[in-house]
Amino acid sequence: MLRAGGRDAVDEECQSSAVGTALCLALLFVWYCYRVGREQSAPALPGRPGPFVLLPADGPQGRQGPAAPPCPPNGSATASSLPMLPLHPGGRGLNHRLYHSLQDYAKRYTWSGMGRLHKGVRDPARHLLSVRPAPSIQKPEVFFLPDLPTAPFFPRDAQKHDVELLERSFPLLLAEFHSVYRPAPPRPGSSPPPGWKANGTPQGQWWTFYLVNQGTPLALNARRCPRTWRVLAQLRTFIGNNVFGNACFSVLGPGSTVSEHYGPTNVRLRCHLGLKVPPGCELVVGGEPQCWSEGSCLLFDDSFLHTAFHEGSAEDGPRAVFMVDLWHPNVAAAERQALDYIFTTPGPLTGPFRPSLTRLRTRAPV
């Protein structure tokens, strides 16, 4: 009987210990759920910066600044873990804003395929123009995506579909250029035709007629060029949803020179379709000269130091090209979507009401 009573006492002690352990574990679990719930209900990134504006400067270059909040890109959001990594020691200003924008994107969507973007955001000091002291032939002003194949000029096969589409559309693009361009007196300070913008040059005249300027469609200009707008909407790799995307007619008058400058990023290729190319016109990118040809496209990386000039006579008339920004062929689809989110088009038209290429095209007169 004593032995049985001893066993009962031991069993009761073991049961009490097990109940106490279970209660402790339950309390720990409740505490953990409470902490996780508080973290998830708090704002993910308080004070997250808005998209970027590439503001015009005195010359071909630009500068960046904050703007209105962006809208998320189309597509279904997927949950993913978000490693809150420390900022790079030099992570202030642009680096800091881009870092938090990338984290916000990954929190809403995914970290998958974001390795190069993460690397470029966390360590921009070797690439950006503002923080790169040593002379370099390539210095993007705003963002550098590492590990992209790089060269001043690219072969037409790099974006074969869009290049062939533009070249097939040469006659109608040329006709609409003539419909909106009216030569002004060739004197300094003369006003450009309606819809055109004068750009600063050390000498001569350089005018642009934008259909899309830093990702924002210009409705009035687009309605004046409905066929060109339809061509633009058919391009597969046109950058139409962030501030790195532009499309315009660009005119360089006789005796004009565009100052040497760098573009904002290496994630794009700038495409020039020659419309009117008199003798004595040349484009120099990264120290390599190329000549435009009427009806043919030139693809180049404008994050390289580049310039253009027209040394022809007044009788030769202006040099005219149709310029459009295309994605670099080695920027993956996931990276493009993230870049559209980080560098979303700013301003009052940001969000679901910002006119898209297709929607604006339907409003343009035939």
From TrEMBL:
UniProt membrane topology term: Single-pass type II membrane protein
Cross-referenced Gene3D superfamilies: B-lactam Antibiotic, Isopenicillin N Synthase, Chain
Region (Disordered) residue spans: 45-82
InterPro entries referenced in this protein's UniProt entry, alphabetically: Asp/Arg/Pro-Hydrxlase, Asp/Asn_beta-hydroxylase, IPNS-like_sf
Presence of the UniProt keyword NAD in the record: no
Compartments, as annotated in UniProt: Membrane
Single GO molecular function: dioxygenase activity
Every Aspartyl/asparaginy/proline hydroxylase domain range: 201-329
GO cellular component: membrane
Coiled coil location: none
Predominant place of localization: membrane
Stretches with biased composition (Low complexity): 56-66
Alphabetic keyword roster: Dioxygenase, Membrane, Oxidoreductase, Signal-anchor, Transmembrane, Transmembrane helix
Similarity remark: Belongs to the aspartyl/asparaginyl beta-hydroxylase family.
UniProt protein name: Aspartate beta-hydroxylase domain-containing protein 2
Originating organism: Denticeps clupeoides (denticle herring)
